Amino acid sequence: MCENYSDRALKMVQTQLRPRGIHDEAVLRVMSTIPRHFFVPHADLDDAYSDRALPTHEGQTISQPYVVALMTQLLEAQPGVRVLEVGTGSGYQTAILASLGAQVVTVERSRWLSQEARGNLEKLKLAGSVVFIVGDGSLGEPTLGPYDRILVTAAAPRLPKCYLDQLKTGGRIVIPVGDHETQTLMSYDFDGQKVTAQEHIAVRFVPLVGEQGF
Ligand code: SAM
User: Fold this and answer.
1) Confidence of residue 2 (pLDDT cuts 50, 70, 90)
2) CB of 210 closer than 6 angstroms to any ligand 1 atom
3) Is 63 a residue of the active site?
4) Which of 143, 153, 99 shows the shortest CA–CA distance to 121?
5) What is the mean pLDDT of the segment spanning 46-66?
6) Domain 2-203 carries which CATH code?
């Protein structure tokens, strides 16, 4: 199946992403080129381009393609934009951001997952614009901020205030907020004085654990 992955990635874009309103051509282009099967466990290779989240390692998940696409579209990560990603996981979302030309700082609490993700991005020659950090991303990564964008790919009980302290004026945060069962995908825009929140779709993510998480 991996020989024809580009056909499967293209089909994923045409059947799962465009019909649901993903319209950012840059996002659609990178999602049709990044080999998602690099990022899933061997046992799930046949499902790598399916319309669902998949288990990865250490009880974690790689999000459904549509959710990755929507979060990326909401992030508006143009080339050169500095992005803090919390929850590196498999590195699939990181690869999407790096392919869009973003400068990414990605934080993962599991050292093993972070190392695997780095290996995947190195194979794809995308690791050059990514800094991999092992630590508690619920606190952000203040030493490398501030950031234009913050993307959190684990469910938070509330927006950690420290993320706002690490965001530039004009910046945006995309994060699932809710309880252990379901969350709402939220975006927060900061104009230098006030924060404007917007609700998007219902989602279900693994929890953001740590000092500002669950
Ligand atoms: N974006 C990932 C991908 O494309 O594969 C999926 C991320 S998975 C849904 C959530 C990840 O968040 C897990 O790998 C988990 O270990 C990580 N995580 C949870 N709490 C964290 C924290 N406080 N700091 C850093 N990573 C955390």
Assistant:
1) low
2) yes
3) yes
4) 99
5) 92
6) 3.40.50.150
